[in-house]
């Protein structure tokens, strides 16, 4: 398929991998809002319970403690090279590691209003869509007839295989909550998207009746991105806000968060994180508390200190390299990839040869090589080359034979434009 990359050969498959719970930690760093606009409800030496709201962000969205323990202090660390973030440091009460969330009785009788309130109060976010609070998506569709309810279980990025494992292990939970949402909103067209894998598709079909369509799509990068997937499914371009077209799309991990909130009465305090790459010995899918340090996770997966040359968060294609492994798992962290020397080998950068490969591969039909000479002040050219349409997928960088700094340039330009907007 044109404009997509076949990357599966990069992926380290591991059949017998399963989700491991890893909570063995002495302290956590609960991340506060990036924009530094939050209200903190706790102070030094306060005892905090697991799942308690410790702060709220600028949108009044709750920030929870993932552990029980004592508030030590607020510290600041560089998250990315140029972005600082504050954290609440909590010393874990090792005698109180059990979660005391009690299953919600009669969740089946919740009204739409009550359901939306739970999504808001329990901090459910769709990380595939610029960290949008999920209740907002539902709010927009509350009184409309939803035309299509799509659950996105596709993962097309190298080294990531968390979604499939979640599907196999949490099918009962997924089934309960999907059927609940279908009933509550009286939905008719339900599609679950998975990679082109017959075994996985048959597994789904055992658990859902025929009214739920299981759609297999090719594992091509970056087809998992919401709007590209919609274009592929309906052979038509839609505007970015799918709710305008009465389409509700949720990522499968987000559906699991909804299950935890609605049925288990549990806010989002843990993350399923894929840990992979040649710089570690034990590739794993871990369930860890938000705020656990990346260093603790890497040590648990036996990372080779001398062999590991770079740590990348979330994705090799459009993720972030981090240089400080004392940083914690954030709400949006889904993968930690430890690369060895071979994988990080720097290819010498030559002059752009105008080969056009970056153009061929761009899923948004842009001309990435033109971005190399753009300046934030050159508003005309930014418009002319549709820079705002770039989804930062990294495909152009991956394909470029002369290793032009495309990803770096795009990141820099986006950051500068964001600053101007603020
Ligand atoms: S792929 Fe690289 S070398 Fe080829 S046109 Fe694009 S920027 Fe230039
Ligand atoms: S990063 Fe932007 S310009 Fe490059 S391929 Fe992806 S969408 Fe196109």
From TrEMBL:
Residues 343-372, 381-410 form the 4Fe-4S ferredoxin-type domain. NCBIfam families: rnfC. PROSITE patterns: 4FE4S_FER_1 (PS00198), 4FE4S_FER_2 (PS51379). GO terms for cellular component: membrane. This is Electron transport complex protein RnfC. GO terms for molecular function: 4 iron, 4 sulfur cluster binding; electron transfer activity; metal ion binding. It holds the Pfam family Complex1_51K. InterPro entries: 4Fe4S_Fe-S-bd (IPR017896), 4Fe4S_Fe_S_CS (IPR017900), Ion_transpt_RnfC/RsxC (IPR010208), Nuo51_FMN-bd (IPR011538), Nuo51_FMN-bd_sf (IPR037225).
């Amino acid at each position: 398929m044109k404009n997509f990359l076949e990357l599966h050969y990069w992926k380290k498959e591991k059949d017998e991998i399963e989700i491991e719970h890893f909570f063995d930690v002495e302290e956590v760093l609960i991340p506060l809002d990036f924009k530094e606009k939050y209200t903190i409800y706790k102070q030094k030496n306060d005892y905090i319970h697991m799942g308690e709201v410790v702060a709220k962000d600028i949108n009044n969205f709750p920030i929870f403690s993932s552990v029980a323990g004592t508030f030590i202090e607020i510290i600041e660390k560089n998250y990315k090279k140029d972005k600082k973030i504050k954290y609440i440091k909590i010393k874990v009460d090792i005698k109180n590691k059990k979660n005391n969330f009690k299953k919600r009785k009669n969740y089946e009788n919740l009204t739409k209003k009550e359901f939306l309130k739970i999504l808001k109060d329990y901090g459910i976010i769709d990380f595939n869509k610029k960290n949008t609070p999920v209740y907002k998506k539902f709010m927009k569709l509350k009184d409309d007839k939803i035309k299509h309810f799509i659950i996105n279980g596709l993962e097309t990025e190298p080294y990531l295989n968390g979604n499939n494992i979640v599907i196999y292990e949490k099918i009962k939970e997924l089934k309960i909550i999907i059927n609940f949402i279908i009933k509550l909103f009286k939905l008719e067209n339900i599609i679950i998207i998975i990679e082109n894998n017959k075994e996985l598709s048959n597994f789904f079909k055992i658990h859902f009746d025929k009214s739920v369509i299981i759609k297999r799509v090719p594992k091509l990068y970056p087809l998992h991105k919401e709007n590209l997937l919609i274009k592929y499914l309906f052979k038509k371009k839609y505007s970015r806000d799918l709710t305008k077209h009465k389409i509700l799309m949720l990522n499968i991990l987000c559906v699991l968060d909804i299950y935890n909130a609605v049925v288990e009465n549990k806010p989002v305090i843990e993350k399923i994180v894929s840990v992979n790459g040649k710089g570690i010995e034990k590739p794993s899918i871990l369930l860890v508390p938000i705020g656990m340090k990346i260093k603790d996770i890497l040590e648990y997966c036996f990372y080779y200190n001398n062999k590991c040359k770079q740590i990348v968060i979330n994705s090799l294609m459009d993720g972030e390299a981090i240089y400080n492994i004392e940083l914690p798992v954030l709400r949006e962290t889904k993968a930690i990839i430890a690369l060895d020397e071979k994988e990080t080998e720097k290819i010498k950068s030559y002059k752009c040869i105008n080969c056009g490969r970056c153009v061929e591969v761009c899923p948004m039909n842009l001309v990435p090589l033109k971005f190399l000479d753009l300046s934030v002040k050159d508003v005309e050219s930014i418009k002319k080359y549709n820079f705002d349409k770039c989804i930062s997928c990294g495909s152009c960088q991956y394909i470029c034979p002369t290793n032009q700094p495309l990803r770096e340039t795009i990141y820099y330009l986006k950051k500068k434009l964001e600053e101007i907007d603020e």
